[in-house]
Amino acid sequence: MINPVANLKKGMKGTAQIVVDKKHLATEFIQPTVESLGTPVLINLMNLAAFNAVKDFLPSGFTTVCTSVDVKHLAATPLGMSVTAEAVLEEIDGYRLVFKVSAYDELEKVGEGTIERWVVDHEKFIKKIHERKKRLSSG
């Protein structure tokens, strides 16, 4: 049996970056609010950094899925600035992975926290999704 976490080590790092565009603004999610990077986008960027930290070290057919997010949005980033998220693998507990995440714009730290992702067999995970959908329709 394949051990999908065999190649993972604490300290592995991943990054993700965007330039804040109109579609990333908080005003795209909530009205009325301020025109700055939306918290859901910041969380997604940090989550992508965590995904990127390990994706190339998993065996074929395995991926990770996000199960928990604990993030603080520390500063507002305006339209046109770049934001870079960083994730560091802090804990490996079986198939459970915990990442310390942070994000910086061109001036300062704008976010920090932790993200938990689980290593899953992609095919089995999709099968479970389809089974749930069938349960709903037969319901």
Could you please describe the fold and organization of this structure?
By secondary structure, the protein is an alpha+beta fold. The chain has helices spanning 39-54, 122-138, and strands spanning 13-19, 62-73, 82-93, 96-104, 109-121. Strands 1-3-4-5-2 form a five-stranded antiparallel β-sheet. The longest helix has 17 residues, at 122-138. The N and C termini lie far apart (36 Å).
Key phrases:
139 residues; alpha+beta; Thiol Ester Dehydrase, Chain A
* Number of beta-strand segments: 5
Fraction of residues in β-strands: 35-45%
Average pLDDT, to the nearest integer? 96
Question: Which class of secondary structure composition applies to the elements?
Answer: alpha+beta
Weakly predicted, low-confidence segments? none
User: Cα distance, first to last residue?
Assistant: 36 Å
Percent helix, as a range, is 10-25%
Radius of gyration: 17 Å
Assigned CATH superfamily: Hotdog Thioesterase
Structure in a nutshell:
With 139 residues, the protein is α+β, with helices and mostly antiparallel strands. It has a single domain (13-138), classed as Thiol Ester Dehydrase, Chain A (Roll).
Task: Note the topology.
Elements: E1 13-19, H1 39-54, E2 62-73, E3 82-93, E4 96-104, E5 109-121, H2 122-138
Antiparallel strand pairs: 1-3, 2-5, 3-4, 4-5
